[in-house]
């Protein structure tokens, strides 16, 4: 039996539906935490491709802001700046747009964070409050772009 074009298209549609169903059900599993930090390519307006990733954020303030590793003036609790890992994808001077649940903030990397993992961003109190309340302490699954 020779497959027809409609049979091939039907099988492809069915396979795509099964693949997305299994991915959707697996997204909430703890094992998928690592997978969420991998780059996802999306179509942006004007057919431009943009890399998007996810991270987690915490906040720091007060004396922890003194002597930023990247140099420059000491930021305040209300500065829109961040500290990042030495081993992460971010460098001093990078501007990072963070988004979560319809809220967003753009921060500049001015410091290094010794206790941060590669995809962990430590924000000032002011920047953190743009995404959620300080009482939350940690915000997971924040989308970022540079």
Automatic annotation (TrEMBL):
InterPro entries: Expansin_CellWall, RlpA-like_DPBB, RlpA-like_sf. Keywords: Signal. Residues 56-140 form the RlpA-like protein double-psi beta-barrel domain. Residues 1-21 form the signal peptide. The keyword Signal applies. It comes from the Eukaryota. Pfam families: DPBB_1. CDD domains: DPBB_RlpA_EXP_N-like (cd22191). PANTHER family: PTHR31836, RLPA-LIKE PROTEIN DOUBLE-PSI BETA-BARREL DOMAIN-CONTAINING PROTEIN (PTHR31836:SF27). This is RlpA-like protein double-psi beta-barrel domain-containing protein. It comes from Pseudomicrostroma glucosiphilum.
């Amino acid at each position: 039996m020779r497959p027809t074009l409609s049979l091939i298209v039907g099988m492809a549609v069915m396979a795509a539906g099964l693949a997305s169903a299994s991915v959707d059900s697996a997204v909430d599993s703890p094992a998928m935490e690592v997978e969420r930090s991998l780059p996802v390519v999306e179509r942006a307006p004007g057919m431009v491709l943009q890399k998007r990733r996810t991270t987690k954020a915490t906040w720091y303030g007060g004396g922890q802001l003194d002597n930023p590793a990247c140099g420059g003036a000491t930021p305040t609790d209300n500065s829109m700046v961040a500290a990042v890992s030495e081993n992460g994808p971010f460098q001093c001077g990078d501007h990072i747009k963070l988004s979560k649940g319809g809220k967003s903030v753009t921060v500049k990397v001015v410091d290094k964070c010794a206790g941060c993992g590669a995809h962990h961003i430590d924000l000032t109190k002011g920047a953190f409050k743009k995404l959620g309340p300080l009482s939350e302490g940690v915000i997971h699954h924040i989308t970022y772009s540079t």
